[in-house]
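User: tokens in, sequence out, please.
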């Protein structure tokens, strides 16, 4: 009977569920955008390496009010020899791979083409074991080339395209960096733009000793050590052991503060998660206002429906229909109306997400993707059901309390 009533009043039912659809669309769209931002940022952060610790001069999450910024500035830079010192300690049994990294900027040239301010990243050979490098052609440099500081390089996709626009394969070509000729031995696949710009598309990767030789005294200021734990070693255990090892290497007294930072990917992931929880809560409040408007529409239509069908309700009750039956009948109308509206709102969100993903992939070559998760789908249905229940409860209650004789006589 409830469904029959909704079908008989198609236009009125459609306008009512449209209000709910817009409200659910607003809420789920906010959730989808927030979840997509969080997922894409975390994915970009995870590209820094899994199960790794960064030994750095700076602390990613900040030192707190009890550790002023000038103490970070006064810390010594991370040194290349500290890699060997760490390897010589018992902690080496916990380490899968360790790499020293540093970065500089320079103009890169190849023939008549050049790139100003290109990022030149220096690594030791074990970096390829820490981070998955999608090499399209050629290879990464080995330990022998690393130790000798060979003038070789692995180039990102955008660097290869800019310097050698007519060549699909650039391995074997030469480029000039810091005034030194370098042989290209590897070419990376295009990673595409990501939301926090962590990729190698615009980078040139060289052995760290070559970078130090070519860049001169400036090399080493933007440096850190990346350490990957073995599969059977927890990241927390490695961090604690590494702290003691680094304090011993730097000969710090027990009363002295650490003059280095141990950064984990979880620092960033946790901070990102906390931030987006706040954003999601704020978005929910905004979306609820839109849903509230839709709820008023459903409540209004249910009051009208009760008024129009007062005579029918009186006949039903005179034939034996109980109050609970009338209550459930009108509640069913309100909830079904809201759920259908919710499904429509979720469908609109999904269509918008798919359209945005197609545009980003084909027009902007971006790796960012919008994701409508199953949990958001369930949330949308729950919100729709709740608003239908709240909007319909008072009209349904009034309908169930009508006196049969008075209801039948009403016009």
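Assistant: Sequence out:
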């Amino acid at each position: 009977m409830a469904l029959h009533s909704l079908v008989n009043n198609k236009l009125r039912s459609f306008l009512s569920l449209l209000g709910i659809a817009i409200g659910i669309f607003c809420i789920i769209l906010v959730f989808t955008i927030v979840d997509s931002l969080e997922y894409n940022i975390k994915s970009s952060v995870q590209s820094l390496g899994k199960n790794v610790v960064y030994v750095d001069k700076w602390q990613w999450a900040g030192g707190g009010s009890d550790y002023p910024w000038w103490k970070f500035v006064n810390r010594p830079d991370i040194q290349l020899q500290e890699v060997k010192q760490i390897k010589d300690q018992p902690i080496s049994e916990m380490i899968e791979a360790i790499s020293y990294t540093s970065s500089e900027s320079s103009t890169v040239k190849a023939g008549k083409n050049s790139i100003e301010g290109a990022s030149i990243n220096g690594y030791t050979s074990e970096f390829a074991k820490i981070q998955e490098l999608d090499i399209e052609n050629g290879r990464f440099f080995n330990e022998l080339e690393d130790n000798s500081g060979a003038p070789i390089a692995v180039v990102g996709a955008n660097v290869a395209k800019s310097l050698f626009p007519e060549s699909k394969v650039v391995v074997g070509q030469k480029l000039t960096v810091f005034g030194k000729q370098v042989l290209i031995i590897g070419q990376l696949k295009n990673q595409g733009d990501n939301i926090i710009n962590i990729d190698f598309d615009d980078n040139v990767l060289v052995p760290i000793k070559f970078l130090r030789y070519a860049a001169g005294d400036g090399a080493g200021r933007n440096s850190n050590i990346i350490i990957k734990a073995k599969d059977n070693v927890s990241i927390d255990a490695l961090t604690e052991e590494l702290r003691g090892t680094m304090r011993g290497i730097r000969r710090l007294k027990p009363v002295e503060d650490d003059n280095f930072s141990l950064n984990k990917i979880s620092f960033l992931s946790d901070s990102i998660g906390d931030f987006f929880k706040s954003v999601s809560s704020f978005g929910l409040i905004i979306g609820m206002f839109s849903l509230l408007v839709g709820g008023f529409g459903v409540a209004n239509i249910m009051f009208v429906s009760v008024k129009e069908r007062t005579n029918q309700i009186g006949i039903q009750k005179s034939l034996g229909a109980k109050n609970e039956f009338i209550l459930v009948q009108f509640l069913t109308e309100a909830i079904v109306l809201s759920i259908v509206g919710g499904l429509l709102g979720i469908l609109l969100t999904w269509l918008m997400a798919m359209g945005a993903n197609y545009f980003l992939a084909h027009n902007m070559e971006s790796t960012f993707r919008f994701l409508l998760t199953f949990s958001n789908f369930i949330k949308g249905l729950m919100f729709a059901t709740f608003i239908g229940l709240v909007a319909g409860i008072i009209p349904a209650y009034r309908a169930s309390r009508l006196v049969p004789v008075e209801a039948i006589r009403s016009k």
